[in-house]
Amino acid sequence: LKFCPKFHPSARCTLRVGRTTCSMAEPEGVVPFVQIFICFTLLLTAWELYLDLRQLKKNKEKSLPDEIKDLVPLDRFEKSQVYQVDKKIFSIFSTFVHLAANIFEVVYLWPLMWKLSKDIVGDNEYLRSIAWQIMTSFVSMPISIPLELYGDFVIEARHGFNKKTIKLFVIDTIKSSLISIVMTSLLIPIIIAVIRWGGEHFYFYIWIVCQVLLFVVMFVYPTVIMPLFNKFEPLHDAQLRQRIEGLAGGLNYPLQMLFQMDGSTRSAHSNAYLFGFWKNKRIVLYDTLLQVQINLSKEAGSALGFEYVKEDAGLRLKSVKLESTAAGKWNEMHKGRVDEIKDGELVVGVKKDSDIITDLAKVIEEVDKMMQTDAQGSLNIILDSKPYTTDEILAILCHEIGHWFHGHVSKMLVVSSIHIFVIFRLYAFAMYSPSLFISFGFDPTERSIMVGLSIFMLMFTPVETIVGFGMTSLTRMNEYQADEFAVRQKRATELASGLRKLCIENLGDVNPDPWYAWFHHTHPALVERLKAIQAKDAIINKKSQ
After folding, report:
1. Alpha helix segments (H runs only) across 199-298
2. Does residue 459 contact residue 37 with C-beta atoms inside 8 Å?
3. Which pLDDT belongs to residue 540?
4. What is the pLDDT of residue 543?
5. How many CB atoms lie within 10 A of CB 394?
6. CA distances to 117, 125, 211, 217, 420 from 195, in Å
7. Contact indicator for 283, 255 with CB cutoff of 8 Å
8. For the residues 528-544, what does the mean pLDDT come to?
């Protein structure tokens, strides 16, 4: 006798002389899984919509709340509110579009594309699963791409953040699609093979494989994939490099490489992050943290909006004009921010495509070219002024090192590992359920691993929502802990100043609804975070005295 390979609880084994056969018992009644999925989806969407409407109401408030009057100027608060309202209205609209598209795709297109995949590649499960997964990934692009275009070139551009061009958007989309195809083609055969080979205890073996793949992706993504989209260079500022290396050495952080990334090619938002395994740690700073870049868009017949005086270090701006000029349009969106154009600013370079021109003669040539009345296009100038002080950058990095010190990444990986194991263990009970396949329009004899796993994950969405909320809450706790680490390094004042500036410059939500923030925000609200920093600083200073 051999063990029955189909180990679903509804399986039955029929003995034959000299061998064992296995057949799947027909269900007495088909469980309406697809109706359950739709009900869960509608309920979750209703909950999300309720939270969105609460947040939208907060973002429409005109008066500055008392608790942030000393933190945010009124004009910056108003601009932040307008930006958040625009994003939230667009988000609500996108939610309804995706809701209708996803239900239609799952209920009608999934089974149709599974049949189509057989016509394209035949009955081979590996090839058919790859083709099906690629088709299901790309079928929503006619909807997702217009929404992305509107988000980038209307919402983000309206508030001065979008730096992409249509050409760059198209290139990024093509690159992302090709990477998705390659990753799908590599990973799906591994998943299917391990599950088929693993037998009754496949969930344990696929869990081990997923851990290996997770570490491979964590290495490949920042070192191979991200450089396909952004340019990484050694940090140019030698003095800042020396200070950062001193900070890392003092905290025993095993820093090996220090990069700056051309984040300004796509967005004006600022950020910094750390990555790497064990003793091979790296730090990446967005160039928007390091230098002020101004992207002027000029139409033929209009003026650039400033004059300059040539100096040894660069071009000193003067006579900045705001009415009907490229500089005036820029300042309308950036008034009060660090990148507002003012008399006396020093232009030290020009960015063309992804290259930075610092040769003074070439800088003058580019600026003079755009000063011509009939000239049109964009001029990206780089100023000598710094958006953040060196101490603010060090404090922010000290916070990031705090995540490493407290092992937050390792702890989150452990949680994710347990999460993955539980998913595959539960999937083992449902992988051959005829009701699951029938309800979603597939043949009752269908035994595809990827189809079954995809449907199971749909049914698991409510649990995933709860898990996601738990992870969000844990992440917020980690942020407080990393802040405290920076405070203990005597960087409370600089950290508070840097976080406040980051929030203001990025038009962050300084007036969040408590329910919305509780459910969605991975970082505490600015006012709560600064209060915690101040309180911890007072306690630690008192103890040190």
Report:
1. 202-220, 238-250, 287-290
2. yes
3. 85
4. 57
5. 22
6. 21, 13, 15, 20, 14
7. yes
8. 84
Task: Decide the pairing of beta strands 272-277 and 255-261.
Answer: unpaired
Q: Say how far apart CA 43 and CA 56 lie, in whole Å.
A: 20
Angle CA 301–302–304, to nearest 5: 135
Give SS3 for 256.
strand
CA of residue 94 relative to chain centroid, distance: 17
Burial (CB count within 10 angstroms: exposed 0-12, middle 13-18, buried 19+), residue 252: exposed
Closest CA to 36 of 370, 346, 460: 460
Distances (CA, A) of 191 to 38, 115, 213, 459, 464: 28, 21, 11, 20, 21
Question: 352 pairs with which residues across the strands?
Answer: 355
Q: How many CB atoms lie within 10 A of CB 147?
A: 15
Contact 332, 367 (CB under 8 A): no
Give yes or no for residue 29 having a pLDDT over 80: no
Task: Name the one residue in this structure whose structure tokens are 């390792």.
Answer: 410
pLDDT > 90? residue 488: yes
Distance between CA 353 and CA 351 in Å, rounded? 6
pLDDT at 1: 30
pLDDT of residue 266: 86
The CA distances from residue 459 to 181, 210, 301, 319, 510, in Å, are: 25, 21, 59, 63, 36
CA–CA separation, 209 vs 77, rounded Å? 48
Distance of alpha carbon 59 from alpha carbon 402, whole angstroms: 32
Number of H helices, E strands in the chain: 20, 12
Q: For residue 47, count other CB atoms closer than 10 A to its CB.
A: 12
pLDDT digits (tens, 9 = 90+) for 35-76: 999 999 999 999 999 999 999 999 999 888 888 888 888 888
The answer on pLDDT for 98 being more than 90 is yes
CA 196/CA 211 separation, integer angstroms: 18
pLDDT, residue 9, reads 37
Q: How far apart are CA 376 and CA 302, in angstroms?
A: 9
- Selected residue with higher pLDDT from 286 and 21: 286
Strand (E) or helix (H) holding 261 = strand 255-261
**Contact predicate 292/313, CB 8 Å:** no
The whole-angstrom separation of Cα 216 and Cα 231 is 22
Q: For residue 473, how many other CB atoms are within 10 A of its CB?
A: 14
- In terms of phi and psi (left: phi > 0; alpha: psi -120 to 50; beta: otherwise), the region of 15 is beta
DSSP 199: G
